[in-house]
Amino acid sequence: MPSDDLLVTLRLIGIVTTAQLRASGVSPQQIETYVRRGSLFRVGRGVYARSEVSSDHLVRDGGDVIVRAAAALAMAGPGAAVGHQTAARLFGIDLLGKPENDVTLICPPEHGWRSRAGTHVYATALPPDHLTTAFGLPCTTAARTVVDLARTVDFRAGVVAADSALHRKLTTKPEIEAVIAALPRRRGIVRAAEVIAFADELAESVLESIARVVFRDIGLPAPELQAWLGRPKPFARVDFYWKKYRTIGEVDGAIKYDDRQSALTQLRRDALLRGHGYEVVHFTWHDINDRPMEVRRLLIEAFERGKRAPRRAPSR
Predict the structure, then answer these.
(1) Is the pLDDT of residue 186 over 80?
(2) CA 38 to CA 31: how far, in whole Å?
(3) Is the pLDDT of residue 85 over 70?
(4) Domain shared by 90 and 59, yes or no
């Protein structure tokens, strides 16, 4: 049986198992009737959510993850914890691409619990300092979650998660490095260490994280992030800055300039920066992901212009 604390949390979320319903005198036929009427939602095999309680969670952003994670834990034995992408979603850590629907649990090897429809299980022991709770549910710490993701996804996706966790101050690099040190022989741990070494808490979005990886992959020097430019009083903060080349890189999300006023404001800002002798290059999601060599060409050309341009005003 789950711990007493978890049982309290499951009740608060509205999760109940077939065994609990039967123990309270509800017959299988009555359970099916409650499901048809909408009083119970079947979350998984042998697990239900009581509509009068769970509906409050289901309508909130990410609430379905909480309910499904609680349902998976309700069926798991002692020591199970939410991990990987599911833990990341509980923490609000950014993920690259559409998250998996399956709930990921980490269970002690002796538990003997196997993956089943809707639930993916990793059988491994978790040190006590790699465990915490989120929404009352046992889960891996943010640091352990980042390391597990970095071990099992590609480098770009790992950087997205690590940057996000650091930027949201859910963990720190020393905490993540301590987890890596505790798992010296774990599969993918070398890649995880590379991800963490590259991660930067100043990256503010998925697109900025991906752009950083692309800049590295196409052979460009690493830029400064979120740099303030202009002296004696800084007047603009930019996404990326290559000081040696007086070149600014800005990544534009799909809705960054979704109205005319925002676009005009950006045009005026770019004109001001160029008036101070900076090169300004903008990139979209499409550019970064689908046309990296075009991005390289534009930046190299800007670097050359930036090196030749006279400094027109005292600036950073």
Answers:
(1) yes
(2) 11
(3) yes
(4) no
Edge-to-edge strands, sheet with 236-242: 224-229, 236-242, 247-252, 279-284
The domain boundary, picked from 173, 201, 229, lies at 201
Task: Quote the CA–CA distance of 275 and 313 in Å, as a whole number.
Answer: 8
pLDDT band for position 1 (cuts 50, 70, 90): very low
Q: How would DSSP label each residue in 11-67? A: HHHTEEEHHHHHHTT--HHHHHHHHHHTSEEEEETTEEEEHHHHHHHHTSTTHHHHH
3-state helix, strand, coil in the chain (%, to 5): 50, 20, 30
* Token pair in block for residue 116: 């089943």
**Are residues 70 and 87 located together in one domain of the fold?**
no
Domain boundary among 166, 201, 236: 201
Query: Do both 99 and 65 map to the same domain?
Result: no
Number of domains composing the chain: 3
Residues forming beta bridges with residue 281, ordered by sequence position:
249
Residues 51 and 89 in one domain: no
Task: Give the SS3 label for residue 222.
Answer: coil
* 153 and 135 within one domain: yes
Q: Letter for the amino acid at 234?
A: P
Look at residue 275 and tell me if it is in a domain.
yes
Contact of 162 with 146, CB cutoff 8 Å: yes
238: domain range? 206-308
Q: What is the pLDDT of residue 136?
A: 86
Token pair listed for 32:
């099916």
Provide the 3-class DSSP secondary structure of residue 238. Answer: strand
Q: What local confidence, expressed as pLDDT, does residue 148 receive?
A: 98
Please compute Rg for the chain using Cα positions: 25
Which CATH number characterizes residue 231's domain? Answer: 3.40.960.10
In the DSSP assignment, the letter for residue 116 is: B
**pLDDT tens per residue, range 240-257:** 999 999 999 999 865 455
Rounded Cα distance between 74 and 80, Å, is 10
Helix (H, G, I), strand (E, B) or coil at 250: strand
Q: Is residue 122 part of a domain?
A: yes
